[in-house]
Amino acid sequence: MRRSLINRDFLQKTTVNSSDPLIKIRNLHFSHGNRPIFDGVDIDIPRGKVTAIMGPSGTGKTTLLKLIGGQLRPTGGTIEVDGQDVHKLSRKALYKLRMRMGMLFQSGALLTDLTVYDNVAYPLREHTNLPESMIRRLVLMKLEAVGLRGARDLMPAELSGGMARRVALARAIALDPMMVMYDEPFTGQDPISMGVLAQLVRRLNDAVGLTSILVSHDVEETAGISDLIYVISAGKVIESGAPEALQGSASPAVRQFMGGLPDGPVGFHYGAPALSEDLLSMRGAK
Amino acid sequence: MHTRQLEITVGAFMAAGLVALFFLAMQVSNLASITAGEGYEVTARFDNIGGLKVRSPVSMAGVRIGRVVGISYDQSSFEAVVTLSIDPAYNQIPDDSIAKIYTSGLLGEQYVGLDPGGSLESLEQGSEVMLTQSALVLEEIIGQFLFSRAEENAISDEATAQ
Amino acid sequence: MLDALARFGRRGLESLERLGRGHLLLLQILAGLTSLVTRIGLLIAQVHSIGVRTTTIIVVSGLFVGMVLGLQGYYVLSQFAAEDSLGVMVAASLVRELGPVVTALLFAGRAGSALTAEIGLMKATEQLSGLEMMAVDPIRRILSPRFYAGFLSMPLLAALFSAVGIIGGYFVSVGLLGVDEGAFWSQMQAKIDWNEDVINGVIKSLVFGFVCSWIALFQGYDAIPTSAGVSQATTRTVVHSALAVLVLDFVLTALMFGD
Predict the structure, then answer these.
(1) Pairing relation of β-strands A228-233 and A236-241?
(2) Across the interface, do C129 and A66 touch by the CB < 8 Å criterion?
(3) Residues C170-202: b if buried by 16+ CB within 10 A, e if exposed
(4) How far apart are CA A261 and CA A58, in angstroms?
(5) CA distance C115 to C122
(6) Could you report the per-residue pLDDT of A159-190, keeping only the tens digit for each?
(7) pTM of this prediction?
(8) Three-class HEC string of chain B
(9) ipTM of this predicted complex?
(10) Would the CB atoms of B28 and C198 count as touching at under 8 Å?
(11) Dihedral sign (CA B86, B87, B88, B90)
């Protein structure tokens, strides 16, 4: 009945040859209802690096993270994490794999009825039988790493958006996972907390040897901290490479996205008939 | 601490619910009067049981001593067979007692009353009450009343005619 | 015409699908009992937020319902000079019908809607997803304890309602209207049967607790994760629970007291 004091899997970060990519996505297809979201995506996420997945809003970046985490099932293709096909795992094995994945949700997804301290302690209490004194030490260390040790007694409702995300980050790394997935960590942040978060992502990645997957459309911040960028548009990877290489890309779509140009291959207008035609037609008039 | 307070209120809540159930058992329902072991059963045959129901009370001298647990109809003798369950505390009922069906109040429900006989033998599990008196059926009483009035009138008519 | 038929068919298919999801969820929730045994603290916390916090409204409503039953019953029974049966009338209506049914309706309004809103908001704010990604099963960890707490609380609440209602009826009939105290209790005890009346009432409230908790949790878990979606789900919880309770009450009554 008693679980071992600490699960062996947490300690053992890499089980397969470390030069292999941690995540291998092959020919991924996924559609939401009748709307295709991914149409043959191949992505390799190397170990120990910060990999960014970028693209305009609505390209299914969050969906990609949910697919990696096994919360959604692809309609075709495979996703391998650390050598295991996520969608072929039994429920138990999937949960075991998830213990080694951290995920930072856009909203933070903190449990609103628990304090900051209890939120960070939550995964430790759920998955280990560590004594309370040990949990306290671990929680304070994680909170220190995100600079919020002083906020441990606050409730999530009392935190600003940026602080909530940092607490969520502390919780995501509570079990010392092998990877952390960040879902739009910079959205809706002021420049200061954006900078703080960007630095945290980078520092954590380097200090603990994490693999980080960053989903974002904030070009500047993301390009500043990532080692490798994939740009997704219209269900396909249209470009990949180091940030500098992407800035000088020949592809007009990538140039538009990286440069923030309002019109280009991704049109400013949502699909519609020509304006003159629309104004003259009587359709929809009462 | 906080959890302790929580546990106390939950404990109080559950205790209150159980007390309420206990109240329903002892004060509201008949659980207090159903004694363990259900009592011994005797049968009685009636020509007519009127409105007697299963669970109707069985009493002696107005004191409740048991209840009706079964009613069936015997096709061979055209009689109703009523099974009475009697509290084992009352084990000194003479076996020649008379079972009668009474009505409590004018329109009240009917019950079985036992009038003691003089025998030295007592009723026990499985024995039968031999002497019974059926329920009074209102229509029959009225019918008898009218009939006797008519008869009386006929006699007095005869008397005046003579 | 054909369009209307197609819409009707689509609605039917959607309802069936929803029903299927509901039953799957129920199975998963029921299976959560195994992990609840080792973590009884979760259950206690939920009995507190579901049962204890509903007690006030149950006690107050029970008291007034009992008092009204005393008054109304007196006016009817006194016409037949049968005031002595007032206790029976009050107790029978409470223990058999009003206790379980009114408690379930109040429970759906007070605790059920709160459950739906809580689960729906947890879904909308990605807390459920977050738990899943922390390798914590939200059904076992969040839904199961709430379900069993509702299932357990309901009969206790219904018993409280009936008991308080009978006491309220006692105050009105004996204290206010001058019904004989001895007759009030003795007639009640003579006519109310433990097995037939009280236990059947408890069975009813167990069924209602099961159904109301299930509906509330499913509506929350299946809610569209937006403010509008959660508010619709909350409304649906109250409406569906009320309908389910009333229909089931008829069915159960027919089965229990039919002969």
Answers:
(1) antiparallel
(2) yes
(3) bebbbeebebeeebbbebbbbbbbbebbbbbbb
(4) 17
(5) 11
(6) 888 888 889 988 988 888 888 998 888 887 78
(7) 0.79
(8) CHHHHHHHHHHHHHHHHHHHHHHHHHHHCHHHCCCCCCCEEEEEEECCCCCCCCCCEEEECCEEEEEEEEEEEECCCCEEEEEEEECCCCCCCECCCEEEEEECCCCCCEEEEEECCCCCCECCCCCEECEEECCCCHHHHHHHHHHHHHHHHHHHHHHHHC
(9) 0.81
(10) yes
(11) negative
For A234, phi and psi rounded to 5 degrees? 50, 45
Residues 6+ apart with CB under 8 A from C248: C207, C208, C211
pLDDT tens digits, residue range B15-51? 999 999 888 888 888 776 655 456 888 899 988 888 7
Cα gap B109→B51, rounded to integer Å: 7
Q: Write the single-letter amino acid at A78.
A: T
Give the pLDDT confidence of C101-117 residue by residue, as tens digits.
999 999 999 999 999 99
| Interface residue B3 vs chain C (CB under 8 A) | yes
- At a CB cut-off of 8 Å and minimum separation 6, what does B64 contact? B33, B57, B58, C190
Please state the φ and ψ torsions of residue A13, each to the nearest 5 degrees.
Answer: -80, -40
Compute the distance between CA of residue B40 and CA of residue B54 in angstroms, rounded to an integer: 16
* C-alpha torsion A158→A161→A165→A171, nearest 10: 10
How far are the Cα atoms of A103, A148, A198, B81 from residue A169, in angstroms, in the given order?
8, 11, 12, 80
Burial tier of A282 (Cβ tally within 10 Å: 0-12, 13-18, 19+): exposed
Among C237, C228, C227, C235, residue whose Cα is nearest residue C125: C227
> In Å, how far are A37, A38, C185 from A34, measured between CA atoms?
9, 12, 68
**Type of residue at A19:** S
Q: C145 CA to chain B: closest CA distance, Å?
A: 14
Using alpha carbons only, give the angle C45, C116, A62 rounded to the nearest 5 degrees.
Answer: 100
User: Per DSSP, what are the bridge partners of residue B86?
Assistant: B40, B66
SS3 A173: coil
Give the residue from C102, C56, C103, C108 showing the smallest Cα distance to C217.
Answer: C108
| A13 has pLDDT over 60 | no
Structure tokens at C32: 């959560």
Nearest CA distance, C53 vs chain B (angstrom): 10
Residues of C in contact with B30 (CB under 8 A): 189-194
Q: How far is B28 from chain C (nearest CA, A)?
A: 5
Burial code of B50-77, b = ≥16 C-beta within 10 A, e = fewer? bebeeebbbbbeeebbbbbbeeeeeeee
Say if residues C37 and C140 touch (Cβ distance below 8 Å). Answer: no
Give yes or no for a contact between C183 and C89, defined as CB atoms under 8 angstroms apart.
no
The number of beta carbons lying within 10 Å of the beta carbon of residue C94 is 30
Task: Give dist(CA A85, CA A76) in Å, integer.
Answer: 13
Interface contact B28, partner C, CB < 8 A: yes
Question: What tokens were used for C202?
Answer: 């408890």
